[in-house]
Each structure stands twice: as structure tokens, then as C-alpha cells.
Amino acid sequence: MRTLKPLFVLIFFTVLSLGYGQKTYTEKDIQIIPKPNQLLLQTGTFEFSKNTVFVANTDFQKEISNALISKFQVAAGFSPVLGVKAPQRNFIQFKADPTFHKEAYKLEVNNANITITANGNAGFIYGLETIRQLLPVAIESKYAITSEKWQIPNFTITDEPRFKWRGLMLDLSRHFFDKNYILATIDRLAMHKMNVLHLHLVDDQGWRIEIKKYPKLTEVGAWRVDQENLSWNARLTTNPDEKGTYGGFFTQEELKEIVKYAATKNIEVIPEIEMPAHVSSAIASYPELACFDQRIGVPSGGLWPITDIYCAGKENTFEFLQNVLDEVMTIFPSKYIHIGGDEATKTNWDKCPHCQKRMKDLGLKNTNELQSYFVKRIEKYINSKGKKVIGWDEIVEGGLAPEATVMSWRGTKGGIEAADQGHDVIMTPESHCYFNFYQGPQNEEPLAFDGYTPLNKVYEFDPVVPTMSPVEANHVLGGQANLWAEHLAGPRDSEYMIFPRLAAMAEVLWSSKESRNWNDFTTRLPPMLKRYDYQGINYAKSAYLVTASSSADLGKKQINVTLKNEFPNPDIRYVLGDKNIDQNALKYINPIQFTGTTVLKASLFQNEKPIGKTFTDTIIFHKAVAHKVNYLTPFNDNYKGDGPFTLANTIRGSKNFHDGQWQAWLVNDMEVVVDLGKQESIEQVIVGTLESQGSGVNFPVKIKVLISNDGIKYQEVGKISRPYAPNVTSELKDFKVDFVKVNTRFVKVIAVNLKKSPKGESSWLFVDEILVN
Questions:
Q1: Most buried of the four, 224, 358, 378, 480, by CB within 10 Å?
Q2: pLDDT grade, residue 22 (50/70/90)?
Q3: Is 343 annotated as catalytic?
Q4: Of 676, 765, 675, 671, nearest to 724 (Cα)?
Q5: Percentage, residues of the chain above pLDDT 70
Q6: 200 is annotated as an active-site residue
Q7: What percent of the chain has pLDDT over 90?
């Protein structure tokens, strides 16, 4: 026995030294977004240290290795070694295999080393990005965290994307974002294994790219008159003689730097140069490009319809565009040039002698065919330079250019039609891919475009439509998220709209359809959000918000409130009254019933703690509840609310005026009578209203309250006036009319409509409740 003891001690300490500090991993610990196609988990771990060698034999391998090494240097407090020869153990190596698809990679990890096998640079990048996500989230830290174990599990991952095109579009025209923000966005796209950055460089409200042959495009077209204090669609027409001060543009050198940096991340930068519409900024710079040489200012905000478009009948239009495209193509080596092609109102073409002559000479039947001629001519020129054209799905109308690729945004119909004709397609329907839409309850969200695309809806997206044949499906290059910037004032606003929806889009476009699962995705999302935290990304927490929907049983004078959340099987808890949301909160199971005025608070819980913003609502039962409302001026048929009792059902509307709780009057005043059924003592009437000036919805300018006991003769008891005031945001407001306490049965309420906005447009008046107290 004494001779065996030293051997036993040696074995014990050897085993201890090998296993000490090593975590035992399960598949639940592999929280990668987008989800890899195949993963085989094995026992053991690979641990990074200051002696770990990144074996890099090309300049590109050195560059991408240094990107991860620098993260260790900051977050771990040590710097792995960059070398050209592999030691016996503790190294990462790159192995080229030409049989792999372009972006595919294989990642093999054991205790001694890591091997990334790929066709080339793209696969090597994605292999390292996967390693990055397997490391503790603290790898993203901007300061050293010495307590962390920098290890990853042993496994084999075989992975490649489902789609070739995995993109994000940034609208730089409506609001300009500088080079640093674009470079940061490129880093974040690479982290999510996205490979296309589409830059919307030209639109009515700003020209953002330096064109040396036409300096006025940036001297004039890049700047608009500052009306940022007004709602986007409420901004007034700009005087062409007034100098613009709000805007900016990229020099060609800045754009070349962006393109070069993106290439190191396997991201292709696609420029969009709009035509024939969305070009007011160009026409403001060079009026001779329009049909009637009209002088206009660069629009400061919303513009509809878009009638100031390039003249399709003048040769100088095509000379200008070819010269512009020549300079664009020297900056962007991309395979594609996006030319827009959407939302052209062709009324000027109908009247223009140049356009009419062109149509007659070419035997064109209508202006749709003239637009097709325009697009085909530009496509032919771009093709002659070795490039391909992309256009929004309107380019299908009038006949599609021979080799054009269609980006389908008005649903998927245009994409299906183009694929049926043998054209490549990028699916980006606004229903799932427009990140300028709200992603949570409008009452809790910053101002956005009037639409709703929550995180789970993005995850439902699939670029291949079920009705497509295999041949048509083969023409679908992939999909893209689009962020239009009308309501984005700065980078943090942009980040809020992109993240975490980009994580859902990334998985949709990379992972196999069979491997995608919403429940599984939600378990992998929290670590990604922690990475965002470390990186200082201002991401939206909207998915954690509790939302409520209400229904009224007016016979019982009862309100039923249903609570829900985006996550599957959410742990929602609530309290009533002035209690705090804590561990004693009630677990939500069934709709909550209310028969009196009550404050409701609710929150999503994780690990027995509330997370996200607390939902709070006050259900108010007032003297008019469930009583008859007579409409002396009928509400508009498009906004009927929840029926004739809408204004007396206690259910309040949200900033989403399509939520079914609003009644509306266009130009007309609201005049209604509430019959309380018997004489009641009252001293206040509250009118709940909404203002969304960008949508033409304005607060009333006056409210009058009159009373009667016979329903015939009325006496005014109170009124308030409020002059029109500019408002950038959407806002809910209760207007209170107080008066000396009186006894009455009938209450007449008149809310006076603004009638016309300062822009000259018809005004809407929205009301959700009349509270009588």
C-alpha cells in the first residue's frame, strides 16, 4: 500500500489540475444568435490565456484575429499572442478548404486547440464571431474583469447561412448619421452575421453623397431649412430662396473608408441613388432636371404626393444621372447599384412636352411604360459598367428591366411576380421588415411610423413565400430590414429601433427554417442583450412590456382587462391600488374584472423579480358609464370606435389611433349629448383626445359643456379654449372643464375641430371618452 500512495497522489493532483475551474456545459449554455445549423457538444473546455496563440498566415487572418485579441486585452486584462506557427497546444488556427460554400465554416474545439475551417475570409470571420458569442458576455466589457473564466466548451459546429442576402438599410437622407455611427453599425452587423449594408443616400429631404462634377448637390441639396420643432408631416413648404442649415453629407473619401472597413467584416455596402422620384434635393440643386425647370426648396419634412421628379423626356437628365453613377461606381465596388424607382407621381410627365414627345417617338402607351423605359435605360448603362440594378417593386410596373433585381416592400406580391419572370428578388415587406414601425405599445414608445412590428413578428418573417415554386424560391436572394429615419434625431434613436429586432432578423436569414423556434430564441436573447449593455447600445426593451386589452360588459357595468407579453408563457404579476409590484404581487391567470375605479399595475417577472417597465393604468368609472350617447354630428365611418357606447365605456384609447377605441370627426366639430338617465349632481366634464400632427390629428381648439333637464333647452356651464400649438410628438390629453356643481340629466359636449392645419390640410379630431364627474 505504501508504494501505491505516491502514484495515487500524483493521479489525484493531475486530475484536479485538469478539471479545476472547468464548467460543465449543456446545450442550453450554447446561446448563439443566429442559431448554428449543426452542433455536437463534447466534454471538456478550451481556456484562453495570455499564452493562447492565434495562428494567422495572411494579413486578413491577422486583422480579424487582432479584433478578438483586442477584446481580450481590454476585458480580460491579458493579450493572447499573434503568431504564424502553431505550438503543441493552446492555439487557434485557420484552415482553408475550397470545397466549402463561400460563407460556410466548421468550428472544432477541444482542450488543446481550436480549428476554423472555411472556404476563405467570410467563413473565418463567422467562426470567430461564434467563438466571441460562446465566451462570457463580459468579453464585450470596456474594462478588465479579472474574475471571469475565459473558456468555451468543446464541440463541433458546422454552419452556413440559408440566404445570400442578409441586409440592413439605413436612411441617411431624412436624418444624417456620421461616419462613426456607420462604422459602429458595421461592427454590429458582423456580430449578427449580416452581410449587406444598404445606404439610402438620396431622397427628397437630403442628398448625402459628394459628386464632384455637380457640387450644388451637396452645397444646396444636402441642407434643408430647420423645421425640426414641427412634426414631420406638418412641416411647411420650403422657400427656395431660404438657405438650409440642417443636414450633412459624406465626402467620397469618407465613403471609401466605410466601404473598405465593411469589406473586413464581409459586408457589402450597397448605395441607393433614387430615381425618377424622391429627388427634390437634386431638383432644388439643378432645376433643369425637372420637367418645367421649376425652382423648389429642399423639403424639410413629409412630402406627398411626390410630383417633382426627374424629367424622362430631357436628354440632360440621363447625362446627369450617368455622370453621377460614374462617380458612385468609383466609390462602391459592390455588385449592385440600387436606383429606387418607387412612389413616382407622374402628373408632370402627363403634361410635359418633353415627356410626351419621348412617349410618342417610342410608341409608349402611358407614363408607366415611360418609367419602365427610364429604368431600362439606366439599367443598360449600369450593366455596361459590370454592375447590376436593384429597384423597389414599383419597377415591375410597365415592364421589368431585363436583368433587374427587385426589392419587394409593398408586401411580397411584387417579389413573387418578379421571381415568376425569372428575376432575382430580395424580400423586405413592410409588415415584417420595416424597423421604423412601433415595436411596443405606442403610449410607452418614442415617436415612430404608424405601424406595428414587434420582435416576435420580425421572427415570423420568411423570405420564401409558401406559394412559390422551387424555381421561384431559388430566385429569392434573401431579406432585409429597413430603417427609415423620419422620426430619428440621432444615433441612439436609430439603435433603439434596430436592436434587438436585428437579432431576430439575423436568425431568420441565417438559420435553417427547421431549426428556428420562437420559444428557443427567447431563451438565447438575454445574453445578447447583456452584450448590447456592455457595448453601450441603446436597445429597446419593448418585448418585456406588459400590454393590456379591455372589453366592456355595459349591462353589468364591468370592465375585463386581459394582460399579455411577447414572450411565451410569461410570468405576469399584478397589484391593485397603491401597492408596489414586488414578490407579493398576484400571478396573472385570467382576465381581471373591474366594477369600480381602480389603479392596475403589472410587470413581467423573471427569477422572482419584476423586469422591464411597470404597466400602469387607471380604470375610471364615472357618472356617464354605460349611459346613452346621442351623436348630433356623426363620427367618421373610418373611426367608429367600439360602437355607440365608445365615449362612455371607461376604455381609453392609446396613441395608436387604429386601436378601435377612438371615434373621429374630419373637419366637423364633435357635438354629442350624454343622457345620464336621471338627474345627477355634476361639476366636471373631461374630454379625452389625441394629437398626432404628422397624421393630421389635432387637439380641439375649444370645448363647451351645456346642461339640460328636458333635452331641449340647454344652458352653457363651462368652456375652455386652446389655440393651435406645434407639436413634434404624438400626445394624449384630457381636457377638463370645471364648473359650479349642478343637477342635470342631459350633458351636451361640443369639441371644436381645428378644421385646417397651418399646412392647409383637413384636420381630424379624435375622442375616446367623455368622463362626467
A1: 224
A2: low
A3: yes
A4: 765
A5: 97
A6: no
A7: 90
Active-site option among 175, 200, 278, 423: 278
Question: Distance between CA atoms of 467 and 444, rounded to whole angstroms?
Answer: 38
What pLDDT digit, counting tens, does each position of 572-604 carry?
Answer: 999 999 999 998 999 999 999 999 999 999 999
Number of alpha helices (DSSP H) and beta strands (DSSP E) in the chain: 18, 35
Q: Would you state the cell numbers that stand for residue 119, as one nine-digit string?
A: 472556404
At residue 450 the predicted structure's pLDDT band, cuts being 50, 70 and 90, is confident
Long-range contacts of 529-532 (CB under 8 A, 24+ apart): 529/500, 530/137, 531/133, 531/137, 531/140, 531/191, 532/499, 532/500
Q: Identify the pLDDT of residue 21.
A: 52
3-state secondary structure string across 668-709 = CCEEEEEEEEEEEEEEEEEEEEEEEHHHCECCCCEEEEEEEC
555, 539, 704, 683: which is closest to 626 by C-alpha? 555
**Which residue type does 581 have?**
I
| Amino acid in the structure at residue 44 | G
Is the Cβ–Cβ distance between 426 and 432 less than 8 Å?
Answer: no
pLDDT-derived band at 16 (thresholds 50, 70, 90) equals very low
Which cell numbers in the block locate residue 271?
Answer: 448605395
Which bin fits 199, alpha (ψ -120 to 50), beta or left (φ > 0)?
beta
Of the candidates 228, 257, 327, 343, the residue annotated as catalytic is 343
Among residues 471, 372, 475, which one has the least CA distance to residue 423? 475
Over the stretch 701-749, which tens digit does the pLDDT of each residue have?
999 999 999 999 999 999 999 999 999 889 999 999 999 999 999 999 9
Instruction: Identify which of 406, 457, 456, 405 has the alpha carbon closest to the alpha carbon of residue 430.
Output: 457
Contacts of 218 (CB under 8 A, 6+ apart): 207, 209, 210, 211, 249
Q: How far apart (Å, rounded) are the C-alpha atoms in residues 350 and 348?
A: 5
Asked if residue 210 lies in contact with residue 290, where contact means CB atoms within 8 angstroms, the answer is no
Q: What are the cell numbers at 513?
A: 427554417
CA distance 260 to 75: 27
In the structure, what pLDDT confidence band is assigned to residue 131 with cuts at 50, 70 and 90? Answer: very high
Residue (of 746, 689, 745, 741) closest to 718 by Cα position: 741
Nearest to 324 by CA among 371, 287, 275, 370: 275
Residue closest to 283 by CA, chosen among 246, 255, 314, 250? 314
Question: CB–CB of 205/299 below 8 Å?
Answer: yes
Question: 36 exposed, middle or buried (CB, 10 Å; 0-12, 13-18, 19+)?
Answer: buried
Cell 472544432 locates to: 108
Residue 555's pLDDT band (boundaries 50, 70, 90)? confident
Decide if 446 contacts 496 (C-beta within 8 A).
Answer: yes
To the query of whether residue 432 is one of the catalytic residues in this protein, the response is: no
Q: Considering the candidates 140, 159, 203, 274, report the single residue annotated as catalytic.
A: 203
